[in-house]
Amino acid sequence: SKPGPIFLCVGVESTVYVHNPHLDGMKKDNLYHFNLGTSTHDLPAMFGDVKFVCVGGSPSRMKSFIEYIAGELGLENAKSEYPNICAGSDRFAMYKIGPVLSVSHGMGIPSIAIMLHELIKLLHHAHCTDVTIIRIGTSGGLGLEPGTVVVTKQPVDATFLPWFKQIILGKTVVRSTDLDEGLAEELLQYSNELGQFNTVIGNTMCTLDFYEGQARLDGAFCSYTEKDKQEYLTKAYESGVRNIEMESSVFAAMCKLSGLKAAVVCVTLLDRQKGDQLNSEILQTYEQRPQILVSHLIKKRLQASGYYKS
Fold it and tell me: Which pathway, metabolic or otherwise, does it act in (predicted)?
């Protein structure tokens, strides 16, 4: 199925679209899970200058990112506390510095989809233009050394197909998971320029579950063998999959529908062909790598635009 023919464009040069004819007839729009709204907040004043949106699972990670990018752009100061803009809600966290917005999305497709609906409407109501959005996160790798950063070429499902399927009104709707190829190549180029860690471009398998859906052997339930697991992960690798996570397919589908240039940048915490278990020490060692790479891209883009001078 294809999206409807209604395109509500924000401004003449906008690159953020919504596909919902019902929004035009609404006197106000409550972005419930953000605790924001068109009748309660001046969204253009608060967010109209946003050019980069970075999203990630954990609230603490996204606060850490806004602190890091503020330092990289020279926008931090001794009194900077970076308040959570969504403090009135316990669902998501949101932070902003200059033209950069940092938002948590929780874990899995349902959670990030809810967040993206309201984020896209927020950008629409704020009259944002030329927005780039990047998911930064963690993942399990395939055939890669732990700590390798994967820039997603194409999100695929658990059968290695490049689409996102959703049931709407009892019918299966299939949407493309294409991402911006130029943005992915730009990120790879900047990683090579940094020279701090290995980065590759590869397909990302997006699953509905952390345990059985990713062929783990350590969940509460498991009906397959180690051999079964290895055969499945080998097929995934041979199809081009280089990492596994739980958000990229719907992220790519919704960003494509919205006209947002999007990328997914995830560090691998382990090689899934060699194990299943994680620990907090591994996470702390590697989780800042996507932040470093994406911050470097933002700095370069802002330097080119004249916004920021090193």
Answer: Pyrimidine metabolism; UMP biosynthesis via salvage pathway; uracil from uridine (phosphorylase route): step 1/1
β strands within the chain, DSSP E: 8-9, 17-18, 30-31, 36-37, 52-56, 94-97, 100-104, 132-141, 149-156, 163-168, 171-176, 199-206, 241-245, 261-271
Are 116 and 219 members of one domain?
A: no
Per-residue pLDDT for 13 more than 60?
Answer: no
Residues belonging to the binding site are: 91, 135-138, 214, 216
Question: Which 8-state DSSP code applies to residue 160?
Answer: S
Q: Which residues are annotated as a binding site for substrate?
A: 214, 216
Compute CA 26 distance to the chain's CA centroid, rounded to the nearest angstrom.
29
Do 173 and 296 fall into the same domain?
Answer: yes
CB 175 within 8 A of CB 269: no
Q: What is the pLDDT of residue 15?
A: 56
Q: How many whole angstroms separate alpha carbon 97 and alpha carbon 91?
A: 21
**256 near 178, Cβ under 8 Å?**
yes
Distance between CA atoms of 3 and 104, rounded to whole angstroms?
26
The residues, any chain, with a CB within 8 Å of residue 170's CB and separated by 6 or more, are: none
Please return the burial class of 218, using the count of CB atoms within 10 Å of its CB with bins 0-12, 13-18 and 19+.
Answer: exposed
Give the annotated binding-site residues for phosphate: 91, 135-138
Q: Is 100 found in the same domain as 54?
A: yes
Question: In terms of residue numbers, what domain contains 115?
Answer: 27-130
CATH number at residue 208: 3.40.50.1580
- Please tell me which of 6-15, 88-97, 275-284 the model is most confident about, judged by mean pLDDT: 88-97
Q: How many domains does the chain have?
A: 2
Calpha distance 92→269 (Å, rounded): 24
